[in-house]
Write a structure and sequence with these properties.
With about 190 residues, this protein is of the alpha+beta class. It has a single domain (about 1-25, about 45-190), classed as endopeptidase fold (from Nostoc punctiforme). The chain has nine helices and eight strands. The strands form two sheets. Strands 3-8-4-5-6-7 form a six-stranded antiparallel β-sheet. The chain has a two-stranded antiparallel sheet with strand order 1-2. The termini are far apart.
Amino acid sequence: MIRCKTISRRWVLPVIMVAAVFMSGCATNSGELAQGWPGSDRPRTTVDSTTTGILDPITAIAAAQHPLSKQALQQIGIRYRYGGTSPDNGFDCSGLVHYSAMESLGLRLPRRSTEIARSGKPVKRQELSVGDLVFFNTLGARYSHVGIYVGSNMFVHAPSSGGVVRLENMTAPYWNKRFTGGRRIDPVMIANR
């Protein structure tokens, strides 16, 4: 059972990249976003719709080259769990960032999104780079949610109860109006704190 779980996660990133290449020729730009749940502007997403055809080939390659975003992309499909910090137990948003930073960069970030926000250098939205952290106000606090930017306005995050780690578009109305900033993690700066 554990072996199958490891093998399937190992293939997530290559499958995303191959699917992005093939699906990019099928994509259309109607200018419309996916409809959200009734009475909500939150976008409706599933594992299937977020793991194929969203990242263009150039973005997929760039995301795969950055250790932090690569590690986060490998967690797509892992279930959300409040307080979760590992693929075996599930992730919450800060747990995903904490785990990905430790595994890919050997960097121990704080466990709360508000504390993580103090760990990096502020980055304007238009200057975000692959591997930057993105923050959102989802619970009435400036930095109540965090994800990892993978390029082309896309980010990886652990959304909420009942969900799984997934890709989402920052320009979707729900995320766009809740975006509160980006942070660039500098391992040297954090180590010297």
